[in-house]
């Protein structure tokens, strides 16, 4: 999707190696390899309006806004609405109807 237009903007995909490189991110995918660092990563982007996305078990409970998981060989997603509010993001009600809503402990 790198270089494609979405919502009137050009999408740029890049791998970040330090949290300081997330300053201009609007969407941050946190890979499974970063699972031990989820809380630190989520805290670093905090209230900057960054949509955090993951695919690790328990990631939504740990502060990731959208987390993908497999259920009966189908990809599903869960949303942490508390994390979205903290980030200053609004999730559409239509999307929330399709998601499993997750709360933090």
Using the alpha-carbon principal axes, give the shape: globular
Alpha-carbon distance between the two ends: 35 Å
Secondary-structure content class: alpha/beta
Number of helices: 3
Structure description:
With 105 residues, the protein is α/β, with parallel strands linked by helices. 20% of the residues lie in helices and 27% in strands. The protein is built from three helices and seven strands. The chain has helices at residues 38-45, 81-87, 93-98; strands at 5-6, 9-10, 27-30, 51-54, 66-71, 74-80, 100-102. The strands form two sheets. It has a five-stranded mixed beta sheet with strand order 3-4-5-6-7. It has a two-stranded antiparallel ribbon with strand order 1-2. The radius of gyration is 14 Å and the shape is globular. The mean pLDDT is 92.
Quick recap:
The chain is 20% helix and 27% strand.
Task: Write a concise keyword list for the protein shown above.
105 residues, alpha/beta, globular, 7 strands
SSE order and pairing:
Blueprint: E1 5-6, E2 9-10, E3 27-30, H1 38-45, E4 51-54, E5 66-71, E6 74-80, H2 81-87, H3 93-98, E7 100-102
Parallel strand pairs: 3-4, 4-5, 6-7
Antiparallel strand pairs: 1-2, 5-6
